[in-house]
User: Which sequence fits this backbone?
């Protein structure tokens, strides 16, 4: 069964460093998303991406964040200058035209 | 704007007992609703979804949920709990059309199943 994959599973970085989180969505999916979950809190929407552009973003998704689909398979989230409060589990999701979103296993980002 | 309220951050049931996890939603348009399950250190797995067809929706692992528009609810039930059901459960809402169709999640309910 096709699935969304994410790498790395765990990333540790120092405050102020840039990180890139990578996702490979399901191959025939058209819509892509990033969500995050701070430890012990609910899952929060960050950004949605369709047709090579951002379709919606949350207040969390400020100028420090960017997304890219550099080729036909990868979907990346870049944080330019990480802060302690960026420590969270980051989930990638994708969907076809249906409503159901398929989630990856997540990348745990730890900023020290 | 859409929102989801999950009453009870922790629910504890005995093995074999009924599981009832509550979800109420707020939406200015007819919503699509979902239940996801998260096992420790894992991602989100879809349990079931309501997309405006039948109001009683059956999902995986014996779970079901009923969409009640008059009560703005989408409670999750399972007749008989199993130890393997212990996990965190998230209710989520989205709009059927428009924008990126982001999911808005509730705060989650941690289900504990005791012998």
Assistant:
């Amino acid at each position: 069964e096709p699935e969304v994959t994410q790498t790395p599973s765990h990333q540790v970085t120092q405050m102020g460093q840039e990180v890139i989180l990578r996702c490979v969505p399901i191959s025939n999916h058209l819509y892509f998303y990033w969500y995050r979950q701070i430890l012990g809190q609910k899952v929060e929407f960050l950004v949605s991406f369709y047709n090579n552009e951002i379709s919606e973003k949350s207040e969390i998704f400020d100028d420090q964040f960017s997304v890219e689909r550099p080729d036909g398979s990868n979907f990346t989230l870049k944080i330019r200058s990480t802060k302690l409060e960026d420590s969270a589990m980051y989930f990638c999701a994708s969907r076809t035209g249906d409503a159901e979103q398929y989630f990856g296993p997540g990348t745990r980002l730890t900023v020290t | 704007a859409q929102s989801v309220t999950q009453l009870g951050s922790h629910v504890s049931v005995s093995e074999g007992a009924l599981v009832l996890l509550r979800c109420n939603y707020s939406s200015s348009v007819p919503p699509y609703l979902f239940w996801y399950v998260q096992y420790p250190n894992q991602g989100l797995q879809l349990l079931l979804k309501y997309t405006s067809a039948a109001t009683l929706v059956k999902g995986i692992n014996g779970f079901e949920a009923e969409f009640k528009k008059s009560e703005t609810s989408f409670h999750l039930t399972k007749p008989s709990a199993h130890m393997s059901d212990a996990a965190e459960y998230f209710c989520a809402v989205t709009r059927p059309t428009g924008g990126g169709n982001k999911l808005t999640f509730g705060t989650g309910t941690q289900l504990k199943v005791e012998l």
Q: What stands out?
A: The longest strand of chain B covers residues 87-94. The CA atoms of residues 44 and 102 of chain B lie 15 Å apart. The radius of gyration of chain B is 14 Å. The interface with chain A takes residues 32, 34, 36, 42-46, 49, 51, 90, 92, 94, 96, 99-108 of chain B (CB under 8 Å).
